[in-house]
Amino acid sequence: MRFPRLLTCFLAVSALVIGTVVPATAATASVSASGSSSASIAKAAVDPVSTGMVKSTLAGFEAGNIISDAVFTNAGTMSEEQIQAFFNSKVSSCQSGYVCIKDFRITSVTRPADAYCKGYTGAANESAARIIYRVAQSCNINPQVLIVMLQKEQGLITHTWPSAWRYNIALGQGCPDTAPCDPNYIGFFHQIYGAARQMQIYMEGKWFQWYAPGRTWNILYNPNANCGSSPVYIANKATSALYYYTPYQPNAAAMRAGYGEGDGCSAYGNRNFYNYFTDWFGSTQGGANNPFGNIEMIEARPGEFAVSGWAIDPNTSASLSVHVYVGDVGRAFTADEDRPDVGAVYPGAGNKHGFSARVPAAGSGDSTVCVYAMNAGPGANVLLGCKRLASLSGPPAGAVESIKPVKDGFEVTGWAVDPDTASPIEVHLYIGGVGRSFTANVERTDLPAAYRPHGTKHGFKATIPAGAGVHTICAYAINVGPGANSELGCSQNTHPGTVIEDRGRAPIGAFESLTSTAPGTVTATGWVLDPDTAAPARVHLYEAGVGREFLANKSRPDVGAANPGYGDGHGFEETLKVSGESATVCAYGINNGAGGNTELGCKKVTVNTQIPEQGRMPVGTLDSVVVSGTTAVAKGWTVDPDTRSPIKVHLYVGSIGREFTADKNRADVGTLYPGYGTNHGFEESVPLPAGKSTVCAYGINTGPGGHTLLGCKEVNVTSGIQERGRMPIGSFEALQVSGNTITASGWAIDPDTASSIKVHLYVAGVGREYSADKARADVGGANPGYGDAHGFSESFTVPNGTTGVCAYAINTGPGGHTLLGCKSVTITAPVQDRGRAPFGNYEALQATAGGAIVAGWAIDPDTTDPIAVHIYVDGVGSAYTAALDRPDVLAAYPGTGLKHGFYQTVPMSPGNHGVCVYAINNGAGGHTLLGCKNVVVP
What we know:
- Helices cover 14% and strands 41% of the residues.
- It is mostly beta strands and 938 residues long.
């Protein structure tokens, strides 16, 4: 429940400061428009709540009918996608380090269905839009109501730097003016679901009847009663609910101020609800007088967005103004194009209601485009819709694809596109700091798909003069819209002075060496040069009939010196992966133009076959486990793929392991894994206890990587132990203390079985059953044939004071059980503050003369001291201490202390009162609501 609280002018003023702006209403601003031409609208008019141009009238506001029941409970006004698009349109970008509501996500909580809501299934990482939509459907509340409440309470819809606390108390639900917020309502999801459910409780009228519809109520202007009040006839349940939530009406000063600040007696909550709702979503009484229409197209085009559709105001046949927004920048157009199809559907409205507009894009990235139909008479502006799409705008893009020497210079080819235009753009080419301009208008049908709307005339092929030597050549695409010029690339290029002609000569070069240093690889080195070009030639390397292509462009000054004019970039040094103990590689120089290729030679090398460590896990299998008496022989094999050496194998019987080396000869494994050898088998004996056991084998990794379970097998060792009705034996050895934790340990055996048996441990007279199955080698050694699994060690948390523990060994067959012993400990450990919430019971509320008696008890589990309780009467709280003796509570909660009761007479005036009790935390952690009750004081 949200208790009354003053919505100060801070929210109204801060809402303006943080940028609550929308398309200007007819009453606040006008934008000139003629035909389909557009005029820029100031940024301050991005929302109907216009900064710098405060709304001067609240036409249509009725204090007794703020919103109709039908509009208030219309859960189908917006889809999740429409809510998200609305959020996107209100905040174009969020300040660094903050999360705005368009990007806010949280894990929701499951809520059960009841008489007010259909319940909610919690989910991880839900957006604010999704939570609002789902809650609206569950609780049958208009999602626009929840959106407006988020704005009027915390400004969250338009805030660009919201702190976390704004989300935690987003709607003020459960946050009275006179006490801390109820911890049950802290968090965005709890605020939305709690407020929506509370509105249904208000409208039900069963528990809240102060502002019941159909009656006249004296409603204050301000929490200060000296500011006065006036009678208001409450026309419907929705308006009644708004007054329960914010029990003040705007005075004349608040009404005159629009969105601004009134006087010292003004309150703004219900005024601002009406302002935001009508400016964002239209009439609070339904859409009978609002404009309507349809957006038929929103499309991104080079440098702009194209929008078309139609709009009609039911109160006039005249053409309307339509505002189109890209982000927070809008332009006005007149919907006056001839649309006989629309006129035929709406007789009497005429045909001049179509619009077709083009609005400039604002740069690269996604943009939200929104269209508003501007109201011409009664009613309000209407958002026809929004669409988020990628803009075709921003700085130019392109590429330099080749730079090659030609006679007297370099030929440079590539492409360049400015997303803001389909026309060819300029490209500037710089050589040695001197630039020249060219137009990228050569036909290019191979441009990236993203630039198909821009056409194909965007290639360039230009020649820039240059002499012999090394030159730095840079290319720039010149911007024509939003953004800046783009560098397409810079590179150093060598001009030989005399251009080499292609005469069809074959490449020359040398295959100089073939080495193997890294395991499983060979490296080929050499050089190759095509005499018909100074550009690097390609080299093909073949190994085992498989060829690979490389570019011979590594620096070889010796080759450059021996072949003047061709430069140094003609070497190759390439590594190939190979298999086997040797490899033969052949190298070929590939012609860049006319003429044949050249075989540079073939070489053979012995391959380094050392296995590299790659962190791979062992492989293998547990082939068999053969039992003989009390011994098992486990047989199998294991190999670590990262080494040829034998590795360790661990054999476990139950939880007891032993280590062996898998180094026995296994020719079959050597055949399966060539190159690893045959010494990878194991055949080892391990002792077995009586009864059933599991034998498991693990291959142990020699380096990085995990070990491998090779397999497990079940075995059974039968013994000569017979059931003779003998009682268990054993020992209760120790009772150890650590803080408030005690640990009982010992062992127990039934002489008539080798299996583990049960032990019963009684702590302070309360019994618990456990299995005495922990390994105790000393017990197994003292009792041959029974195995080791007969120990127990169990822990319990107990309160301060003396605690007794008794241990019993439980017989598995005929015969009695055995008391192993009893021990006791005394604990005086201090209580630690672990941030746990208080708990208790609100037991009684009884009327008496001049007030009522409030009784119960309260405990903070992190202290034995008495704690405070806060008692709220009709939302006004007083503090008391729960310090009366309550031996019954102490008996139920040992170690918490005796003094935790309260029995308090609280003064009250005659009449009906709601009384709530909170247990107050002494340290870290939240407070706890013990409950609320009603009482009639005589």
